[in-house]
Amino acid sequence: MGRFDTVVIGAGIAGLTCARMLADTGRRVVVLEARNRIGGRMHTERSAGFPVDLGASWIHGIADSPLWELVRALDVPTIEFTVGSFQPGGRRIEHFDATGAPMGADETEQWIADVGAADALLVDAVARSSPGESYLQLTERALAASGLAPERIGEIREFFRHRVEEQCGAWIGDLDAHGLDEDAIDGDEVIFPRGYDELPRRIAAGLDVRLGHVVESVARRDGGEDEWLVRTGEGDFVGATVVVTVPLGVLRSSAIRFDPPLPRTATGPIARLGMGVFNKVFVQFPERFWGEGTYAIRALGDAGARWHSWYDVSAISGIPTLLTFAAGPFGRSMQALADEAVVDDSLTALRALYGAAVGDPLAWWVTRWGEDPFAAGSYSHLPIGSSYRDHDMLAEPIDGGLHFAGEATWGAEPATVGGAYCSGHRAAERLLGRPVDRAEFAAAIVRRER
Ligand SMILES: Cc1cc2nc3c(=O)[nH]c(=O)nc-3n(C[C@H](O)[C@H](O)[C@H](O)COP(=O)(O)OP(=O)(O)OC[C@H]3O[C@@H](n4cnc5c(N)ncnc54)[C@H](O)[C@@H]3O)c2cc1C
After folding, report:
1. Is there a smaller number of Cβ atoms within 10 Å at the N or the C end of the chain?
2. For the domain 93-184+278-371, what is the CATH code?
């Protein structure tokens, strides 16, 4: 049985950041990871000879981002890609109208202006909302006040629904009125041509990480000093403190038993917060059939009913590649289909826009994060009645040295790599009882690599 100052559960970016910061001060730390790889929801697949990010791809806004500071300090290359957050305009998007026909310049301008006007009304409606109202109720209020034509209202309604699915992995009627409050994008967005998992891999270098260790229980032991017994199928570990970074979906599934049972400061947020499903489908084509310089393709109406948004990520592999998403209720139901059926369905949608120019695919990748027992979903969101305070409440240390970290515990930016990174930093600072300088943390990683 190993004894440690801190046992960290989960080798995603939150757990690894926390463990590295603690280990840098000389603490004895072990990281227990259920899978046979590190990175968690940062998962880069390389079997085809180039990186495919099956989990996170983007930094959603690099301005004032601690994660971006880390990327710069580690000199990790990035590619600017600023439509990863479901914006209606900005970088070049090929828009298709409800009949499946490409929108002209004037039509596109009008579409972006109409969504902008409805969004402004929506912000106002959210600010005046009452507790218990859903985001759907607020969008309906904003659309009713917009004075737009009924067909246009129908299209924007669809756009709002799709935006919630992509940003939250949830159905718009389940999301709290404030569920997208923290969704502002500050600065450019970027993706990672060498694969996003470079970050967790470099943070993890030199750490004691035990792969294939599925944690089953965390129990406080009686005795003089505080001590926690962490039980895995591969053996037991004892820590003076424990940091739990498993995803909210895993906490909600009760896969890990806590003894004594968790207090209401933890069980309340775990019950109130939601875990959404957001799946990715990458398809590679023999030839590009969309325009040079196009960042994204968006379709309204029937052609876009299921597959409505496509992102050009060809720059990663040099092969024409589109990435599309299946999220929310559709993201869940799609998981029951075989990969071929998913890809075929998405190609039917694309052919409704580009016709025979859409060649037979060379390769594809389809994810099923909702069925993954060590994620049990893609990221957290706010169902009706929950609030951003629930995220931070979940991170409140529990008597005797039990801490939680991970994206679901960071209220200022949940559901992101940036939030998970900050939550790991916060847990380390709380355990050490003093600030940890992020620049020094990054510099130490670089020094160790020399
Ligand atoms: C498809 C997809 C796309 C995304 N896109 C983006 C994006 O573009 N930009 C962005 O910022 N964010 C994105 N995210 C969200 C982002 O990936 C996560 O917020 C972030 O990686 C979470 O890090 P974490 O350390 O909190 O959790 P995780 O990375 O999930 O780490 C938790 C670890 O705990 C392990 N674990 C689970 N159960 C056990 C157990 N019983 N015992 C031991 N270990 C266990 C898991 O295997 C995992 O390694 C995306 C997520 C998904 C799924």
Report:
1. C
2. 3.90.660.10
